[in-house]
Design goal:
260 residues, alpha/beta, 10 helices, 36% helix, binds adenosine-5'-diphosphate, binds magnesium ion, nucleotide-binding, Phosphate ABC transporter ATP-binding protein, transport, ATP-binding
Length: 260
């Protein structure tokens, strides 16, 4: 089996500064540096408003950085056409979004955007995406919007994976799901990351999800990295008082269900 990482995302001193309504500047992210490798999950956690969504949105250029550099396999992402970049760096959002129509139509959507012939229900492309997201082929003809939240999130995942991305971004993917469904999705993500050698970069409020999937953990506060390292070690032994306090907050579990 191929063991070399497929993707290598690197952030070097990435900052995001926005002008507020007055003349004052707000620093949303300050000199963020880390590397996310293929076959590994990098999990970003931190209080509400700490810049987690902004950080993840930089990686497929839904937001633009003010300083620093982000590279994908050594290439500056600003030099990559945004549409091609978003194919290589797929994103799954907090709340599943289903287009009108069947599950199959939802999976064919990315191809129609690109004016390519969409793969049929029996195609290897569709079967592979369904398999990775652990969806049964029996769902293909169902109205996507009639599915449960957990099933819809899996269709989202399948739709993200159908383009063979190198990087998968997830912003609180389980926050709209109940506990068992969230755990099931976490197990799926873990397997997909390993099997596809994907660089998974995920924001979550869900401690269980972080424990079960994270290889590297990044703790953000007010746009700055407070802790970064091997997830198992940091979760067992936080290095700072700030992170210790954060882990002890009951808000962890609450925000899992309500999102932010
Ligand atoms: P998180 O996902 O960790 O909750 P966000 O990245 O959504 O945090 O937001 C970080 C902070 O930046 C918040 O205080 C938010 O209100 C603010 N913010 C987000 N986008 C902008 C923007 N375009 N201009 C100014 N402030 C912003
Ligand atoms: Mg957010």
């Amino acid at each position: 089996m191929e063991r070399t990482p497929r993707a290598n995302v690197e952030l070097e001193k990435v900052s995001v500064v926005r002008k507020s309504t007055g003349a004052a500047e707000i620093v949303l992210l300050h000199e963020i540096s880390f590397r996310a490798g293929g076959g590994e999950t990098t999990t970003i956690i931190g209080p509400s408003g700490s810049g987690k969504s902004t950080l993840i949105r930089l990686l497929n250029r839904l937001d633009e950085l003010s300083a620093g550099r982000i590279t994908l396999n050594g290439d500056d992402i600003t030099a990559i056409d945004p549409l091609l970049l978003r194919r290589r760096v797929a994103m799954v959002l907090q709340k599943p979004f289903m287009f009108e129509g069947t599950v199959l139509a939802n999976l064919q959507r990315p191809f129609l955007y690109r004016k390519e012939t969409p793969p049929g229900r029996e195609s290897e492309t569709v079967r592979r995406a369904l398999g990775l997201a652990r969806l049964s082929t029996g769902l293909l003809e169902r109205d996507a919007r009639s599915l449960s939240g957990g099933e819809q999130q899996r269709v989202n995942l399948a739709r993200a994976l159908i383009n063979h991305p190198e990087v998968l971004l997830l912003d609180e993917p389980t926050s709209a799901l109940d506990r068992p469904t969230a755990d099931h999705l976490a197990a799926t993500l873990h397997d997909v990351c390993r099997a596809e050698r994907l660089a998974v970069i995920m924001v979550t409020h869900d401690l269980r999800l972080a424990e079960h999937t994270a290889d590297q953990l990044i703790y953000l506060e007010q746009g700055r990295i407070v802790e970064k390292g091997a997830a198992a070690e940091l979760l067992r032994q936080p290095q700072t008082e700030a992170f210790r306090r954060f882990l002890a907050e009951p808000a962890w579990e609450k925000e899992t269900r309500h999102g932010n």
